[in-house]
Amino acid sequence: MIAHGVPVIFRPVEGHATGQIGYVLGDSADGVAVVIDPPAGETELILALLTESGLRLVMVLRTHVHANDTGNCAALCERTGAVLVSGETARNGSDAVRRVGHGDVLTFGGQVIRVLATPGHTPDCVSYLWHDRLMCGDTFDLGSCSAEGSEANPAELYDSLTRHIFPLPDQVLVFPAHAMKARRVAMLAELRARLTPVLARGRDAFITEMASRQRSGSAGSGSSRAY
Ligand SMILES: [Zn+2]
């Protein structure tokens, strides 16, 4: 992949135990990388990928942290010297965290990552926009949007979708933290078209729709995921 004349690396890493998908983003010219939502149990694989590619890890980015989080970011940070980055209210269990909020910009090598506040799936959710790729955590499940679980807030999700995500260009590629029905990427235009009918009915109708899906356990995807 070449972005703005600079060779970059984009490698999804899927956790065998959890199905969680993390993403390694690398700047080959400067030999640095970041990883977004590294899956639990895949630390060695990520370190091997970095070594193979000649990249030094400088940041570990979290889109969100659940109360029952099983992520193993501490080991990855300790072994690489990378800085842990998370949303302003995320419970990381550590003080060594760089907090980010909407509009913040992260850089590594010649690369720029924009931070979008996207609460809804959990209160602390942020998404990371890098070139044409949006790593959104569990904001979308690629079949609908993710308002499941006790930490979900449909009202916040409505605001995140309408104010921060859907104003992005159609061609943005959305990469979730979990595959849904074997899908691992979608164009934003597709997700917008899928959700426009319910969003167009207004904020209150969206909240009602998501609440009914939560009660039925369907959430548009048949999933009862709690992570
Ligand atoms: Zn989640």
From TrEMBL:
Molecular-function GO terms, alphabetical: hydrolase activity; metal ion binding; sulfur dioxygenase activity
Alphabetized PANTHER family for the sequence: PERSULFIDE DIOXYGENASE ETHE1 (PTHR43084), PERSULFIDE DIOXYGENASE ETHE1, MITOCHONDRIAL (PTHR43084:SF1)
Record organism: Parazoarcus communis
Top-rank taxon: Bacteria
GO biological processes: glutathione metabolic process; hydrogen sulfide metabolic process
CDD domains: POD-like_MBL-fold
Metallo-beta-lactamase domain location: 19-178
SMART domains: Lactamase_B (SM00849)
Assigned keywords, A-Z: Hydrolase, Metal-binding
Protein name (Swiss-Prot/TrEMBL): MBL fold metallo-hydrolase
